[in-house]
Amino acid sequence: MLHKQRLLTPGPTPLPESVRLAMAADMIHHRKAAFRDMMDAIGRDLGALFGTSAPVLPLSASGTGAMTAAVHGLFTPGEKVLVVEGGYFGRRWTEISLAHGLNPVILTVELGRAVTAGQVAEALDWDGEIAGVLVQHSETSTGVRHPVGDIAAVVRESRALLVVDGISAVSVMPCPMDAWGIDCLLTGSQKGLMLPPGLALIALSPRARRRSEEIGSGDAYFDLPAEFASNAKGQTHFTSPVSLLAGLRESLRLLHVAGLDNIYRKQHALARMARAGVKALGLTLFAPEDYAWGLTSILLPPGMESAPLLAAAEKNYGVVMAGGQDGEFKDRILRIGHMGYVDYADLAAGLYALARSYQDLGGYLGCRDCLEQALDAYRKALDEDMPE
Ligand SMILES: *Cc1c(COP(=O)(O)O)cnc(C)c1O
Fold it and tell me: Structure pTM?
């Protein structure tokens, strides 16, 4: 065996051994006391992670299940919602809204750029009927971070509910739900949480909760009022994903032991490391300014496509990265995931694999000390204040 496989995709992400072992335990019954004890422990740590005193509900679904639960549980057909569309996942909000019979008003954002709170304010002023604002905190298709704290301050002034897709953001960047005034925050298991895919988490503010109770069961499977009722008993409405929850309990313990602030600091430093490395290699960052902390996307020069580069990086160096997701840029974007159980050494392997594969394919990247530059940026960022 020449090298290890390193999974540097923006989901799924690698799993710590203790999480894998926790998931290998035998079944416990989801309506009995041992399960309730596990749910109590999970609930306390999830509240800290989401920054909320509200319950955080687990759902058996990929992240999109929680997005669907939010749209069906908080809005009724015919209502207008404002969708921030800055990439593939922004468009998913539109698709889910349309499928539910909502009337989405689309705020298109240039790919690679963040929306501004001013743009959201303008859209809300212009149309007083908007019942909800749907946004990503981290638009994983482009590697952009949208300013959710600023957006929340604007949306709070209106009657609209702010619904935040925090998949690839929760446990990667601070997103304090109550302090910022987010009405619905949701995430999925396979990004920053160091778990396999298949578990989604969702929390509602008091006003969103009232709205959800008014609407009642918006969907037979994703039934938020029923989930709240079960959650109060330490259960889930249907049979629980017991093994994933056992893994979640362990991953939350790991996050807690490390300290959430230290995790955010590490994530930010990894983003700075990736950006310094990419720049030193003479490549272009796809998100030049407002960047997410869990992945870095690169715009490849004309003539170099992502697919052969990814294949070479995997085959020759054992590093698995991802391509683009959006139409015109699909083959021109390469995304390095660095969230969850990924550290500076994994990312160094990723940058090395990127540079070497590029040369294996006959491209030229001139940089003798780009790994050093990347690691310097990492160390420096660990000592600096994190951006707001
Ligand atoms: C990964 C991701 C999703 C999709 O999640 P699934 O688990 O594939 O349903 C949605 N939004 C964002 C921002 C993501 O990163």
Answer: 0.98
